[in-house]
């Protein structure tokens, strides 16, 4: 059993009187920064000159600085730039100001775990990673709730790294929902595996394979889209609420029988073997290396594949389907 931490375990005093620089004002940056500010903490935003988000952050009442100035001013730095941009920005604009006793934080372990960022020994290095997208981190906070978060400690120089992580988790509202402790290694590897094999890669390929099978057999694309893609949300919502058993309780017995006899014919031993290979490539750094090289070569594969995926018939059919449903209309 993992140990859960809640607000009563998290003393926000560990961050009072400290200046927190939130680097980036994107999905996570804007959400975490606003929540921290409303929790009474001293937050500045670090952005690059010319950022379209600079003015937006100012309008929200923040002091905004360039990343190097914010690094200099801060006691605690939260890195909420895109993962693939962090190493360069760290090296050029943050590292010079990582003086003794400061803390640097992340919401994903990639750069620390794969050693793209190597902070000095005399600072705290920790993670507070909300388990949800930025807009939910913000919305749930304003509703008096929060999104659960993971914390992890990579380096505890001051002896208070975990206190700071818990105080920060409290500041963004996560300790209202529950916080559990992991390691940079575990968070990074499970996050990459989940998004590749199941959440993003697995789900979209599964849906497309179902859609293509029906369309190639001559069924209406609209029917194929409804059955194999659109309805997924309804099924996932039931699983989210009450596990597989709630979903199976809600669907017909015919659907439940089909689930039992057919599921293992689709996700076969071969699929499971491939998942193990995917995991190995994450663990041994092959995936990280490929992604880093891809970014260094201007994303040749990424951009080409993005174009191909955008032009798959599912996207056009989906747009049409949503236009038929009154509440999807803008
Ligand atoms: P976004 O892409 O939404 O935001 C990135 C921010 O960084 C923007 O404000 C952008 O500003 C700024 N930025 C980009 N490049 C630079 C640069 N070179 N110098 C200075 N600023 C720059 O990022 P996310 O919020 O999605 O991700 C941030 C972190 O949070 C990542 O580590 C991610 O893994 C993690 N995370 C994200 C989740 C999510 O919900 N998206 C969920 C959990 C963790 P501009 O372009 O205007 O300059
Ligand atoms: Mg991820
Ligand atoms: Mg059906």
From TrEMBL:
Active site: 108
Requisite cofactors: Mg(2+)
Residues annotated to bind Mg(2+) 2: 191, 227, 231
Record-listed E.C. numbers: 1.1.1.86
InterPro entries registered for this protein in UniProt: 6-PGluconate_DH-like_C_sf, KARI, KARI_C, KARI_N, KARI_prok, NAD(P)-bd_dom_sf
Annotated positions binding Mg(2+) 1: 191, 195
Record's catalysed reaction(s): (2R)-2,3-dihydroxy-3-methylbutanoate + NADP(+) = (2S)-2-acetolactate + NADPH + H(+); (2R,3R)-2,3-dihydroxy-3-methylpentanoate + NADP(+) = (S)-2-ethyl-2-hydroxy-3-oxobutanoate + NADPH + H(+)
Positions of substrate binding: 252
GO molecular function: isomerase activity; ketol-acid reductoisomerase activity; magnesium ion binding; NADP binding
Binding residues annotated for NADP(+), in chain numbering: 25-28, 48, 51, 134
Protein name: Ketol-acid reductoisomerase (NADP(+))
